[in-house]
Specification:
This protein is mainly α. The chain has three helices and no strands. The protein has helices at 12-16, 20-36, 50-53.
Length: 65
């Protein structure tokens, strides 16, 4: 098990603008780190970031479930 955390404060200006594409880019950084650490899946326990994760964008190294 591993954990990666980018402080959500980094995403708050984008979240307030509803710029989910920008948040998606930030989440991709975290997901790529997890994938490089060997993660085969991830759990996102935030109940608002899912809007960003559902956006179209570059494929993440980790499989989203």
């Amino acid at each position: 098990m591993t954990l990666d955390c980018i402080p959500f404060a980094r995403c708050m200006p984008a979240y307030e603008r509803r710029d989910f594409d920008s948040i998606h880019e930030t989440m991709t950084i975290s997901l790529d780190r997890l994938a490089r650490a060997g993660a085969e899946f991830f759990v996102c326990s935030d109940n608002t970031v899912h809007h960003a994760l559902e956006r179209p964008g570059p494929a993440c190294s980790a499989r989203t479930t």
